[in-house]
Here is the input.
Amino acid sequence: MISPFKKFRVDTLFFRSFAVVIVIVVACIAWASYIISSNELVKTSSLYQQRLLDELNNEIATRLTMIEQISLSTSRDNEIISFLKDRRDQYDTYRRSVNVVNALANLTYSIPLIQGIDLYMEHPFQREEDNYIQFRDLNKLNQEAWTGAFVNNDFAWSTEHDIKSFQGEVPVLSFGRKIVYDDKYLGVLVIHIKYKEIVKILAGHTSNANRLMVDSQGRELVRAGQVLDHTELSEWINVKDEESGYVRIRGNAKIGDSLLVYSKLQDSNWTLVEISSWKQITEGSYTLAMVIGFIGLAAILSVLLLTHYLSSQFTKPIKQLVTAMRSDFVDSNKTELPRDYENEFGYLFAGYRKQNERIEELYRSLERRYEQQRKAEIEALQANINPHFLYNMLDQLNWMAIEAGQDELSRILELMGRMFRIGLSNGNSFITIAEELEHIACYLEIQQLRWGEGLEFEIQAPPELSDLFIPKLTLQPFVENSIVHGFNARSRGFIRIRFEDKTDSLQITIEDDGAGLSKAADRKQPRRTGGYGMRNVRERIAGYFEDRYGVKLAEREGGGARVVIDLPLLTEPPQSAGKDK
Here is the structure.
């Protein structure tokens, strides 16, 4: 065998050798790019579809769960149970039926997803067939085509079916729940939701998505698009046990392979499935391989050098900007950007520098303003009078009352003196719970001297909390509000103060049995929920602890008002708390 190096010309040998090598390299690159990119495309598409299905599944599950919860609360409604249970008086039954219709109609109007509601019962009232609220005969429930899944369950979802309405036949999904009271089967509440709304959610923002939703039994509930007719889904996924994932379905010459992506959220009864053509997903990989082959044969060397040079020139300023964006913070070392660019990069650098300067200036301004405002608020919210003068005057008045034989007035002045002593607290903004309880006990005793036996109170404070610190004069404004406004025009009242350790916070609850927060029907003036004292407490807590802690006011069950104050567990006063001015 003659060696080719001895037979062929050197230039031809080198040309053909390099040509064969380049063709083989380009072919290998094209084939590898096709395999890798097709796998990545399938993986990326499946992950994207799975995330999208998870979002759609979460949205649909949220709405369907809302319907289930509405059905549960409605089936336990006393008005409906009374209407179904006791129907001896015809007039009373009719009146209750009107109330039930109004209640169900309010649900239909307030929740756009609901198309209508049927109440299956014995001896129902006849209503117009296309009305949103229908009373139907319980004995005819089994005649409905969708009640198959409802036989052995207390509640179930139906597949898609049509009902009559003002717009004609409307496709819906229905959720039925049995109404049982004292182990007695009273009827069935069926809520119809708009099928097209669920289809719209399932389709998302794409018009060519092929998706369907199945329940835990494998029944198809909703379908969007043209789902390819493969074999049963149970051959590919287990809708009861499996969570989200994807699988490749092998097809035939007519259908071809498909990518099946499914989504099932944790503790969810629904599975969303999307089926896409495998050929359409990987078509871009084939095109990419062909393009790489053609381009690689013509410009593999020159393009490599040119691309490397141009890319380095374009990516260099971008990398500099990204580095500056990562390192530039207020009070941190700044990364200096080049100033010799006169093109778009120069405009970008200049704009970024100007933006940084404005942000830093704004941050400094806000920081100064916040610090000034915080100091001003805390200082302004302290006592606005000189309590030392008042304390001395009360002491003098107390001695005068003793000399005049006014024992009750003397006791009030003594209690007020103790209150002012605690209010002074050596100029400290925070006092112990024991001191705060002594202060409020003095105030309540003064009020009892005025009310007599009509005012009762109870203070529950575990001894282990006595040494904790809270902002001083926290309780008095709310107790005063209960007495002045809650017990207005009344001769009796009860107040309870409770301290609780909630592990990560101290919770103080103040309750009264007064008029409450809402405007009562027999009173001309509503009870106040504010005032300087209460606003003072709110703003002091906000000034010391920002938004993590605060005050909540609510109606008390059984009448009256409840105030819940959340504070941190402080074994010593915070360093930010200064002396009273």
